Here is the input.
Amino acid sequence: MRISNSASTPVVRNCSPPPSAPKPSGQRWPRIWGPRFFKLAGFAAALFCYRLWVIHHSGISLFFDEAQYWDWSRHLDWGFYSKPPLIAGLTWLSTAIFGNGVIGVKLLTILLYPITALAMVGLARSLWPTSSGVRTGMVAAAVFLTLPMTGILGLANSTDAPLLLCWTLAAWALWRAQVTNRLPYWAAFGASLGLGMMSKYTMAAFAVSAVWAIFAIPGPKRGLLRAGPWLAALVALVILAPNLIWNAQHGYPTLQHTVEITTDSQRGGGVGKALEFLLGQIVMLGPLTVIAGVLLWRTQLKQRLNQVALNSGLMGASTIWRSSIQPSLTPEEMARTGQPVAKQSALYLASVSSFRYLWALSLPLQLIAVAQAFRADAHVNWAAPSMVGFTLLIASRLSLPLVSMSAPRPTRWFTAVLAVNLLLTGAVLHARDMAGDKLPSKFDILVRMRGWQEAFAQLQPDLQHPVVRGLPVLTDSRLLITESAYHLRDLNVQTVIWNPKGTAHNHYEMTRSLPNKVGQDVLLISDDPQPTAILNRFAIVKPLRDIKVATGPDRHLALHLFFLRGFLGYDESTYQEQSGAGILPRDDVPH
Here is the structure.
């Protein structure tokens, strides 16, 4: 189904498509390639290069999650304690191509953000198959690239990057699958869903949007009594199966971790946390982005209702309501037809179903995240995929998708949104450049990635001393074991974690705990100057170096290096059992 865009009003074609009809001859999609696309690509490339420059200029290292993903990429598997394996695979590929430096670790996932923006153009063209619809997609892509969310997450190697791309591709494929009922689109939807799940289990929330779309979006067929939805589920399951098998073999740690972080009420919650989360969502979109969307929607709705009333006289409530959610359908079209648009028509899909679909892509995940924030707090990025739908909705106000290409547009609003988003993100990223070293650490968003390279550089001479070279490096936290693994990568040291209780609360406790074996020698790196619980379990303790690196006027990074000899086991009973100290001479032997 297509809508031509050669005049000021849309022309409906193929209003009642047969179930899986072939594409009519001579029917073409509106063109994406052209001056606008190349401007968008240039804009995306410029922002991509700018973000790489920020990483280099700021001198930051890896956040501990990024260091963890790098460490996982050295030991690829079908699953890890807290995440599915896709992020480790992407990190492995990125470092294989670009090296193990900070930019090499981050580069491939950072590149996924402009790719996601371009995928949004394809999604918009499917929703609104007109030249102005393609333009709306390009506006959405440009806005997405400047969102504060993209500007901040776009500096990190995180699971959100592949998740956002897979969410966008899944939305695109599902729309095409539902309105055509063609099996290749259903297979593409299943592949996007499966890959998204292999990135982050948040992708499972897409199922809510998918169920609504399967039953609510007009198409050749609706519901589950057909092959397409089941083919999508099968493809997704096949892609996810290795991770499910890995979880089964290891006691379902990833699923348990996901349940724990979403049900742990000890972290707080309540109305305040829910409101704080919602405020965070506005900041992620950009305050002016939200304001522009709301004000333009109200203005355009008022104009449309007034025009419809003038052209049509007294109208029923249902028709008035329909006109309010058809922001791209001109009053002249409604006046000329004099009847509601058929639900099977291409015009209905583009002017009504498309907008409902975008809301369905966004609201369920937002509501789930708000409920989570109310119950037990939630991180602001947990609903990041909902920004895809919200951005397209706002872009449809900044550039109407079903009007003549010569129709007036609020270009000043569009320019202002881009400029303010970039200024807001730039102010956050360059706060230290502007305020200098006196900037309080709480205002430095990059502070937790500062100081690591300098601190470990000072430790390296001691680690390379002939007496201790090659010994395992023991740490007492996930933060330190990940940062140690990355920053000591050139020394090829073995990293282990202190785990006296034998718990499995993270990937390293599960896979790399210090064995409870008496007699081992290790190097300990701790942020505690006197980790007594550890030091007491070794026969000989020798402090080697204390490092303190200032990361702000009120914050510093401290590391303490110890040479520990003769591990006595995690407890006294272990020592007595393995050393033989508990075996006493027998005095019952007859003389």
The two ends are 105 Å apart (CA to CA).
